[in-house]
């Protein structure tokens, strides 16, 4: 079992923490005013350049964090909790920007008030944002991937938006990979992605959701308008393929469905339409059939 720290050991521990360039030790009175601060306040570039002693803790932080921090400060003093745990907060910095920190408050039983540790996590948050972006991005085309596509569709449906989902699938991609290698297939996928980006509107959302399959969220579009956008892409791909080389002629099939009761119902209707387009000869657009949509809703798709 750990023993208690002696006064000398506590002093040595404080010096170790207080000497950190990224950790700010704060002693706060009962109202939340700073009565002591370690030297890191200047190195962290917080909102004021001078000594923070006499300032209120909330002067360091963005107003959106005020309630959470002050409630933790109160609860720690009242003995309702042993400490606040780590609280992620936005802090104001001298250049007018905001940076992410985490704050932990503990009690000061003798004097009242609290002692806090404010630690910069801006680099960690930036890394987390980069990892999230990478997890939502297709590495070949740099479009959003299926997970991101489904999340965006879910958000739109929950928000009551209207529109259509279009699914495009390159015809005979497997044959192309066999004849020209996967590197050749990859070049075709990237070129097709660029073609679609040029032809779609600024509010349309394009994702690569499977090998040769791309999804488009056509928000606030009527069926005729959505179908016209699909035809432009199919016709442009057909026209862009070289003539006289049948094994190089590129086409795609497409399925179109309106936003339904759920992302699963919507995607299933679009997938059925896409399968129908393949079955009817490829290089064509098929729209979701009404009875497929009703059936999908009935079984909870």
UniProtKB/TrEMBL annotation:
What sequence ranges are listed for the domain GGDEF? 161-290
Q: Which Gene3D superfamilies match?
A: 3.30.70.270, PAS domain
InterPro entries in the record: Biofilm_reg_signaling, GGDEF_dom, Nucleotide_cyclase, PAS, PAS-like_dom_sf, PAS_4, Rev_trsase/Diguanyl_cyclase
Pfam families linked: GGDEF, PAS_4
Tell me the PANTHER family matching this sequence: BIOFILM ARCHITECTURE MAINTENANCE PROTEIN MBAA, DIGUANYLATE CYCLASE DGCP
Name-wise, this protein is GGDEF domain-containing protein
Q: Which species does this protein come from?
A: Tsuneonella suprasediminis
């Amino acid at each position: 079992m750990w023993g208690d720290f002696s006064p000398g050991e506590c002093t040595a521990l404080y010096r170790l923490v207080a000497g950190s360039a990224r950790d700010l030790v704060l002693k706060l009175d009962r109202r939340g005013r700073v009565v002591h601060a370690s030297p890191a306040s200047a190195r962290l570039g917080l909102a004021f350049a001078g000594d923070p002693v006499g300032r209120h803790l909330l002067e360091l932080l963005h107003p959106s964090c005020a309630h959470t921090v002050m409630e933790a400060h109160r609860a720690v003093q009242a003995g309702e909790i042993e400490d606040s745990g780590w609280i992620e907060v936005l802090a104001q910095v001298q250049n007018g920007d905001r940076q992410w920190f985490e704050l932990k408050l503990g009690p000061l039983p003798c004097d009242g008030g609290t002692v806090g540790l404010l630690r910069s996590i801006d680099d960690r948050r930036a890394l987390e944002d980069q990892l999230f972006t990478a997890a939502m991005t297709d590495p070949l085309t740099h479009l959003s991937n299926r997970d991101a596509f489904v999340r965006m569709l879910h958000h739109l449906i929950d928000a009551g938006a209207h529109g259509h989902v279009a699914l495009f699938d390159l015809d005979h991609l497997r044959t192309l990979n066999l004849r020209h290698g996967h590197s050749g297939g990859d070049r075709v996928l990237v070129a097709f992605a660029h073609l679609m980006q040029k032809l779609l509107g600024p509010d349309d959302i394009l994702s690569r959701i499977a090998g040769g399959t791309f999804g488009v969220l056509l928000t606030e579009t009527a069926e005729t308008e959505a179908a016209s956008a699909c035809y432009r892409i199919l016709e442009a791909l057909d026209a862009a393929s070289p003539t006289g080389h049948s094994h190089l002629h590129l086409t795609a099939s497409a399925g179109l469905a309106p936003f339904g009761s759920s992302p699963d119902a919507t995607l299933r209707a679009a997938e059925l339409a896409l399968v129908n387009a393949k079955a009817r000869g490829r290089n064509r657009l098929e729209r979701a059939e009404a009875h497929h949509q009703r059936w999908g809703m009935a079984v909870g798709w």
